[in-house]
Structures are given as structure tokens and as C-alpha cells.
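Give me the fold.
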Amino acid sequence: MDTVIRQALRDGEKLGLRYALQIPQVASSGWTGSRSGRRAGSSIDFQDYREYQPGDDLRFIDWGIYARSDRLTVKLYREEVTPHLDLILDGSRSMNLADTAKPGAAARLAGLLATAAANAQCTQAVWLSGEGFQRLPNDNLIPSAWDKLELDSKRTPEESLAILPPKFRRLGIRVLISDLLWAGEPVQVLRRLREGAAALFVIQLLAREDVTPPEHGNLRVVDSETGEENEIYIDSGMARQYADNLAQLQQSWSDACRQSGAHMTTIVAEDLEQSLSELEAIQLLAPA
């Protein structure tokens, strides 16, 4: 993990101390009320099941489910059903746009949200797209302790979902951080991310170069996923077409979010700190 990303995680961690994640009121989740503890088996009020995780008390494994499915599943009781954040990061190369603030802003935003989740007494998992989705090493620790946050995948998040989807916590809060700059089916992606969630938030993170159409003249463009290079000539008509295409892409994601019950906002990487009010407006963050 390069020094820019590492420092950005530290910066996001500090920035996140000012915020807390807003927790949706989901009556069926057991979150409403005191959320008084996380100790296994401290209450006889059964609430839910979840997949076994290393360190769980073996006394609470449902051996009947294991016998039927070969899956280790743990019974959850009232005090175990705590708020949870699944942070979903686009690890594709387009998020690592050279000579822009985009990669640093992605890491800073991730660090901020994880710290805000901790301030709200949430557990967390951080998923990075690549050859499928994988959890970041040390993602249950503070962001400055995370490892292997590399934005170098040739896969889009949609392709990663098809290879190996994340194992989300049911009734968790899910946040996707991506530039959304790929050709795909937003509705299908969002339905998969939204299924079983208490809430889904989509943060489109763009560099200023993504937002501003290129100027006139010859330009060499490189596909960040495939490495393919092309020489093109930019004129006013092509600049307008670029702006129109970006607007159509954003509208398609906005429409898909409405259909799936997700919340979406767009942030320019170079203006990240000035744009945090947008995350309050969609009820993702609140002042700590």
C-alpha cells in the first residue's frame, strides 16, 4: 500500500472524529432501543442468525444448520445485534487516476466513514473489488491499521460481484464508494447490494478531470482498466458529448437508486472536505 493511501487513511481517521454514522431505525433488526452490549448469550431473547466468524463462542453455533448445509451459523441474541457498516470500495484502476486527488480522497473518505461508524458503536467490514470482493486485512481495526488497499484492478465492481460477492451482514448499513464510470446495469448492481440491508448509500467520487470535459486539441487517452491507448482530437462538439454522456450516466445511477431505495450523492475529490455536508444531507453522517 503506497504512502499516499496510507497518509489519506490517517487523515480520514482524524476527520471522522467529528462525525458519527446515522443509524436507521429498523424495528425488525433489534437495533431500536438501548443497543446495550455485544456479549454472546447474555440474553435469552433470540434475534437472528449470522455466519460464524473466528473467535465466536462455539456454544452458540446452530449444529442443526451445520448438519443440513455444512455452514457454520451462529445464533444472535438481543445484545449481539449491533449496528454494522459494510464499506464497499471500488478497487478498479479508474479510481487511481494519475495526477489527481481521487485515490487519496477515496482512502480519506473510507477512513472517515469507518471512524464515524466507530463513533456510533458500529462494527465494520471493508470490501475491496478486484478478482471478486475481498475484505481488507485488519479492517476491523482503525483505518490507519488497514492493509492492502490497492486501486489497481482491471475488473469493474459489477464484474467483481459476478466472480465473488461480498458476504454482507444482514440488516447492515452499506456504503459504495466508486466513480461509477463503467458500462453496466446499475439497477442489477444496486439490487444485489441492497438485498438484506438496512440502508444503502452510493457515493460517486469523481476527480475534477472526470467532471470537466477535456480542452481542444489532440489527446492520448488510456483505458485505465485495459491499458488500451487511443489518439483522439477534442473539439467543442466532443466536449459537449462528453458532458452529456457523464450526465446520462449519473442520471441512470440516480434513477436506479430511487428504484432500489438507495441514497446517492456525487463528490469531487478535490473538494472532499467542503462536500461533507452532502453526506449529512443524505442522512449518512451526523456531527459527533
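The longest strand covers residues 123-130.
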